[in-house]
Amino acid sequence: MEIVLGGLLEILQPQTLLLICVGTVVGVLVGALPGLSSSMAVALLLPFTIYLEPIPAIAMLAALYCAGTFGGSITAILINAPGAPPAAATAFDGYPLAKNGQAGRALGMAAAASVVGGIFSLFVLILAAPFLATVAYRFGPPEYFALTIFGLSMLASISGKSAVKNLIGGAFGVLLATVGVDLTTGVERFTFGVPELYEGISFIPVLIGLFAMAELLDQAGQKDRPLERFSMSALKLPTLDDFRRVWKTILRSSGIGTFVGILPAEGSTVAAMIGYNEAKRWSKNKDNFGKGEIEGVAGPEAANNAATGGAMVPTLALGIPGSATAAVILGGLQIHGLRPGPYLFENQPNLLYAIFFAMLLANLVFLGLGLVGARYFSRISLIPRQFLWPAVFCLCVVGAYGVGQSLNDVYIMLIAGFVGYFLNRAGFSPAPIIMGLVLGHMVENSLAQSMILFDQDAWRFLTRPIAVFFFILAALSIVSTPLGTFIRTRRREEADRLAHGNE
Amino acid sequence: MTILRMAALAASTLVLTAGLAVANDYPSQPIEVVTHASAGGGTDTTARTLLIRARRELKVDAFVQIKKGGGGTVAMSYAAGKPADGHTLMAITPTHLITMARGRAPISIDDIKGVVRSTDDPIIVVVNKKSGIGSLDDLKSISEKAPIKWGGTQAGGIDHIAAITFSKKSGIKLAYVPFDGGGAMITNLMGGNIQAAGLNYGEAVDGIESGDFVPLAVMADKRLAALPDTPTLAELGIDGVNFSTVRGIIVMADTPDERVAVLEEKLLKAMSHGTYQAYLSGIGLDASSVGDAQEWDAQIRSMYANIYDTLEELGLRK
Predict the structure, then answer these.
(1) Are B156 and A404 within 8 A, CB to CB?
(2) Contacts by residues A468-472 (CB-CB < 8 Å, ≥ 24 positions apart)
(3) Which comes out higher in pLDDT, residue A439 or A322?
(4) How many separate domains does chain A show?
(5) What is the pLDDT of residues A197-210, one digit of tens each?
(6) If pLDDT is split at 50, 70 and 90, which confidence band does A265 have?
(7) Which of A24, B41, B94, B114 could be cross-linked to B296 through a Cys-Cys bond (beta carbons 3.0 to 4.6 Å apart)?
(8) More confident residue, A302 or A270
(9) B251-281 residue pLDDT tens
(10) Distance (Å, rounded) from C-alpha A85 to C-alpha B77?
C-alpha cells in the first residue's frame, strides 16, 4: 500500500501533472487524425523526454497512449474514418448513429465507455499486476489459434447483412492478410514482384479506404438529393437511460479488454473486435447492430481502452510489449536506462505505480475533454456534405500516407475505397473484411507455429486445456444463432399447436 | 562539473572547426538518416538516440527518414538515388544484407561503405531451465529423439539463418518456429512451448538473472562481458557461427573518403556521450557495441558472405 501511495506522490508534482495533461490533449488530437497513430506520436516524443526525469517522461507517454486510443473514436463516429485502428469497430455503429443525427450521443457514450474501461483495467492492474503478468506465459501458439478462431466465429453475424456475404467478406479479408512474405516459410505470396507489397498490405490504408473513402463515394453519388435539414439533436449527449442500458456491456467489454490487452502482441484492435462481437451476442437489440446501436459504440470503446491498461502489464512486468505503442514506451524506458522486467517491480515499484496513476489521471482528463468536446465535435456532423466530404478526402489521403510515408499506401487506400464502394452497393459490409484482415495473420501464423510445435500432429491441440476451452466457446458461438432460431421456431410452433388445441 | 563540461564543449568546437576546414565545409546541409523500420522500433530508436548528440557534433540538423517496405528495398532505392555527398546516411541491419543476398535489392554489397557500428548484439543460445538441458551435448542427445523446437523471427531472416548454420555445424536437429518478434519468443520459451531460442542479451537477461533461462553459448568471437561464464561456440568446437543483431550507419561507396572520416569521427564522439551509453545499457549492451569504420565495414562483408551461403542452401536465393 505504501508503494502505491508512493507512486501517487510521484505523480502529484505540478510539472508531472502538466505533462500528463499535455500528453492527454496531444493523444486525443493525434488519435483523432487518421494516419497519425499514438505509437508514432510516442516515438516522435521519445527524444524530447531525454531531458526529463524518468517518471514524468514515462507518465506523459503513457497518458498519450491512453488518450490516443480514445481519440480514434471521434473521427470514426463523425466521418467514418477511424483515427486509429482500435476504433475500427467503433465506426460500425458510431457512424450510423451520427448519420441519424445522434453524433453527440455516440461521442458521449464513447468517452464514458472508454473511461470506465480504462479505469477498470487500471484498478485490476494496480491490484494484481505481478500475478496477471504470468497469464501471458500460458498463451502459446495453440492458445492464440483457438482464441482467434473464437474471434472469427462471430464473422457470419458481425453485421446485419446476409451471413453468406459476411463470410465471403471475412474470407476476402483473410486473403488480403496473406499478401507479403509468409512468416513461417519466408516465401513471397501475391506480391507480383512489387517490393512495396513485400511486407504485406498495411492495415490502416485499407481501413480508411473501406470506411471513409467508400462512404465519401457514396455521398458523392447523392449530390442531387436535396440536403436535409439537420436537427440540433446531434448535439445531445447520452441520457441516463442510455447508460442504464449499456452498463452491462461496458463492464463485460472492460473485462474482455483487460484480458486481451495482457496477452502480448494482441492489442486494442482485437480487443475492440471481440468487445463488439460480445456486445452484439448478449444484446436484446441484435438486429439494430450496424444500424446505429449505442451498445455497439460502448462495447468496442470500453474494450479498446481497457486493453491499453492491460497492455502495460506484460510491458512493465515482463519487458514484453503488449502492443505496438507499448513497445515504443518500452523503448522510452530503455532510453532512460531502465530495464523493464521483473526487476522493475522489485527495484522501482514507485515508477510502476506512478505510471498506472498517470494513466488513471489521463482517463479523467479525457473524460472531461470528451464530454465537453462532444458538444463541439458533434457540430462537424452539421456541416453540409458538399463541404465536409472534400475535407474528409484530404484527411483520407494524408492519413493513408502518414503511416508509412509511402504513396503506395495512398493507392491502396484509393483501391480499397472503390472496392468498398462497390461491395457496399452489392450488399457487403466492411466489418467482416476488416475482421478477417486483423485476425487473418494471427490465425494463419499461430496454426503454422502450432503444427511445428506438435510435430504436425493436429490431435495434440486436445492436450491444451485453454485451447480446448476456446474451441468449445467458438463451437457454441457458431451453433448458438441457428440453435436459438430453431428453439424459437419450435416454441412458436408449440404455442401455435397449443392455441389450435384449445380451439 | 560545469566548467569541465564547458571545457569539453569548447574542445569539441575546436576539433569541429578543424574538421570543417579539412572537409570543405562539410556538412553544409541537414543530414538525413534513412531507416527501413517503423517509428519506435529498435532501429528507429537507436538512430534517434544517436542523432541527439550527433546534431551537436556535426553542427547541422539531422533527422530520421523512414522509408518502409520491401525488407529495406525502399530505403535502399531512396538512399541510392540521393547524391553521394555524405548528407544521406542509411541505418542498416542484417535485413538489408539478406535482401541484397536474395538478389532483391537495388544495390549490392559493393555499393556501400561502413561508417560506424551503433549496436552489436550477439545471438545467444538459450534454453529453458525446466527442459533439463544444461549443455550443448544435452541439446544434441535430446534432438536425436525429436528435433529441438527452436524459436526465432521471420523465416529467411537473420535468426533463421543463424539457427540453420548452427544446426548444420553442430549436428543438432532443429525445428525452427518463427515468431512475430522477440517478445513472443521469450514468452514461449518461458512457458515451455519451445525448448531453445537464439536471443539477444537484452531479451534474455531477465530470464537468465531470474534463473529461468540457461545461456549455453554465444554466437560470437569473444565472450560477452556481461556473461563471462558462457563460452563461445568456437570454444565448444563449433567454428564459423558468428551472428549478431547489428545496426550501423553506412553511406554509398562513392562518398568521398574525407567526408566519411568526418562522419566517423563525429558519430563515434556522439556515441561516447552519456546519453547514448545510457541507452546502450538500457538495452543490455555496453560500449563495445560501438565500432569504427574499419571494424564495421569488415563485419558487414563477412556477415554477407555467411548469409549468402546459407540462403543458397535454403533455396531462398533468386
Answers:
(1) no
(2) A468/A146, A469/A146, A470/A143, A470/A146, A470/A147, A470/A149, A470/A150, A471/A146, A471/A149, A471/A150
(3) A439
(4) 1
(5) 887 888 778 888 88
(6) low
(7) B114
(8) A302
(9) 999 999 999 999 999 999 999 998 899 888 8
(10) 30
Q: Predicted confidence band at B172 (pLDDT cuts at 50, 70, 90)?
A: very high
Question: Are A198 and B160 in contact (CB < 8 Å)?
Answer: no
- Minimum CA–CA partner of B161 in chain A: A186
Distances from the Cα of A34 to the Cαs of A38, A83, A115, A244, B210, in angstroms? 11, 4, 21, 32, 42
In a domain, A471, yes or no: no
Strand partners, B244: B122
Chain B CB contacts of A182 below 8 Å: 155
- Lowest pLDDT segment from A446-450, B37-41, B77-81: B37-41
Is B52–A47 a contact, with Cβ atoms under 8 angstroms apart? yes
Q: Most B CBs within 10 Å: which of A40, A183, A447, as the mutation test of the B interface?
A: A183
Kindly state whether residue A483 falls inside one of the protein's structural domains.
no
**Are the beta carbons of B32 and B62 closer than 8 angstroms?**
yes
Question: Which residues from chain A sit within 8 angstroms of residue B160, using beta carbons?
Answer: 186
pLDDT higher at B123 or A235: B123
For residues A284 and A306, the answer to whether their CB atoms sit within 8 Å is no
List, in order of start, the domains of chain B with CATH numbers: 15-121+244-314 (3.40.190.150), 124-218 (3.40.190.10)
Where helices occur in chain B by DSSP H, the ranges are: 2-22, 42-58, 73-80, 94-101, 136-145, 158-170, 182-190, 201-210, 257-272, 274-282, 293-314
Establish if A446 belongs to a structural domain: yes
Record: contact A265-B104, CB cut-off 8 A: no
The verdict on residue A475 lying in a domain is: no
| Cβ atoms of residues B158 and B184 within 8 Å | no
Structural domain of residue A27, as residue ranges? 2-463
Nearest by CB: A186 against B155, B181, B193: B155
Counting Cα atoms < 13 Å in the Cβ hemisphere of A187 gives 6
CB-nearest to B188 from A50, A140, A186 is: A140
Q: How far apart are CA B192 and CA B189, in angstroms?
A: 5
| A89 conformational bin, left if phi > 0, alpha if psi -120 to 50, beta if neither | alpha
Determine the Cα–Cα distance for residues B207 and B130; give it in Å rounded to an integer: 12
343-362 in chain A: CB under 8 A from chain B = 343
Q: Do B70 and A199 touch (CB under 8 A)?
A: yes
A184 interfacial to chain B (CB closer than 8 Å): yes
CB-based contact (8 Å) between A138 and chain B?
Answer: yes
Which residue from B minimizes the CA distance to A334?
B282
Kindly report the number of other CB atoms within 10 A of residue B83's CB atom.
Answer: 10
